[in-house]
C-alpha cells in the first residue's frame, strides 16, 4: 500500500490535539499524519484581530508546500471550507480531500456567519445552539466528554466564520473527494442537491466523490475516534 502525508484540519474552536485519538489509527497503516492548529487558535489569550479565512487557508497551503509529494487533506466541519480553498490553490498537490461532517463550501458563501461573536472572538456557544446535550449534533458525547470539549475549546477567529469562500481554479473538481457523513445520510445529501441548496452546489461538480456514513454526532473525533480514523484510512486506500 502506498503511504501518504495526511494533513488534519480541525473545525471551529479546536486545536491539533482534537485529532489525538484519530491520528494513531491513520498512522498505524503507515501514513504520516500532520495535525494543524490554525492561526488564532494557539491559545485563549491569542489576539484574533486580523485573522480570517484567508489566513487559515494560507496556513494549510504552506503545509502542503512543505511536502514534495501530493498530500491528503482532511477537514472537519469548518475545516472543510478551509481545505476546499486549499485544494483550489494547490489542485495538483492534493491527492484526495476528505470532508468530515462538512462539504466543500462554494465560492461566495461563508461557513457560518450567524454564530454570536465578541469582537474578533467567536467563543464556543452554549450547547443549546445544538439542541442541548440530547441534541443530534452532540450524540455520543456524555457529560464528561462535553465538559472536556468546553475546557479545551479556544475562541475561533470570528472573521474565519463569516468571510466568504474564495475559489478560482476549476481544476479543484478533478481532485478525488470523500465526504464522511456523521449527522446526515447520503439520501439527505442527495435531497439537498436536488433542491438546489447553495451549500452543496460544489458536490455534483466533483468528478470523483465518495460518501461514507458514520452515524454519530458532529464531533466523531471525540465520539467515534477509532471508527473515524479507520474511515479516513479506508478513503485514502
UniProtKB/TrEMBL annotation:
Q: Which Pfam families match?
A: Abhydrolase_6 (PF12697)
Where does the AB hydrolase-1 domain start and stop, copy by copy? 6-228
Q: What highest taxon heads this organism's lineage?
A: Bacteria
Gene3D superfamilies per the UniProt record, alphabetical? alpha/beta hydrolase
| Matches recorded under InterPro entries | AB_hydrolase_1, AB_hydrolase_fold, Sec-Metab_Biosynth_Hydrolase
Q: Which PANTHER family match?
A: AB HYDROLASE-1 DOMAIN-CONTAINING PROTEIN (PTHR37017:SF10), AB HYDROLASE-1 DOMAIN-CONTAINING PROTEIN-RELATED (PTHR37017)
What protein does this entry describe?
AB hydrolase-1 domain-containing protein
